[in-house]
Structure formats: structure tokens, C-alpha cells
Amino acid sequence: MLKIRYPALPARSRGVSIVEVLVTMVILAFGLLGVAGLQTRIGAAEMESYQRAQALLALSLMTERISANAAQAANYVTAGALGTGDAEPADCTTIAQGPNRDLCDWSNALKGAGEQSGGANTGAMIGARGCVAQLQAPNPALGVCTAGVYQVSVAWQGTVATAAQPGLACAAGLYGANDAFRRVVAATVSTATTGCY
Length: 197
Description:
Mean pLDDT: 85
Order of helices and strands: HEHEEEEE
Number of domains: 1
Distance between the termini: 120 Å
Radius of gyration: 30 Å
Helix content: 25-40%
Strand order of the largest sheet: 1-4-5-6
């Protein structure tokens, strides 16, 4: 019987394939960790984007209502923030049409009443609050004729800390000690004074 002999491998090349496999596995593990970290950041950015879009819708809702009822614009000014934690009722139908009803509706929109899941409000930002401040009172006096200027702001809690926004005071101090999680969008509404030409 013929016996086949295989040449012996040199001592230096034994076990090299196992080391190569281990190095490949370590590189692959680091790559997968990087992909997982990227996925986490994408999720946070997507949430921030969703919240900003919801805030802009809420901001637009109130600016349009003030513009539509310019004669009573001063009645839209809020003493504090509406929305999360306020005393506005969930059902605004018992309130007469006008600024008080509009503010109640806005408060419920900020609380997410537009979308519900299992009876809970889900259609809003985290900790959403809204404010209306008067920047300039209207003055219809002859020769002065200045329009009323109002600032509508919507604040919410972001998912990651950023630089604080000190210029906009709506809900300041309600999202952490240094307001690094507070996000705010604002718009101004000017109301024309009647009798000015």
C-alpha cells in the first residue's frame, strides 16, 4: 500500500489563519459598534426634527388666530406659559368664541390632543408650552399711529443638551437648571391700528 506524505508546514505559518480571523472579528466588532452609535444619533435627530415640526404647527396656529382677531389681540397675551402643566380644561366647547377659547384650544394642541393613542395624547412635543407677549402696544393716536406687536413662542424639551436660548423667555427655567434642553421657536404678529392712514 502506497502511503502519501504531505509536506510539513513551517513552524512560523502554523496558527496564522486563526489570528487573521480574530483580527477580522475585532475590526468587524468596532465597525458594528460605530453603526449602532450612528443609528442612535439618527434616532435622536429624527425626534428633534419631529418636535420642531410640531412646534412650528402650534406656532402657526396661534399666529393665525391672533391675525384673524386683530381687534382683540391684546386679550391673547398670557401671564404664564400655556400647555404642559396649565389649568386649561380638556374640553374647550363650553368657553365662548374669542381669545379665551383660542387659548384653550392652543393649550390642548400643545398638550398633544390632536393625536391620541389608547386615550393618551401623543401628538405634541415633550413638555410643550406656549406664550404670547406684547412687544409694542397699539397707538392709533393721530400722528403716532403705531401697530400692536405681539410675540408668540412655543417651547419644548429637546432630547440632547445644546446652547441655551436666552433671548426668548417662554418657559425659561422649566427644562433643567441651565435651559440646555429647552428649545424655543417664536414669531411676531403685527396688528394694524384702525383709523390710521
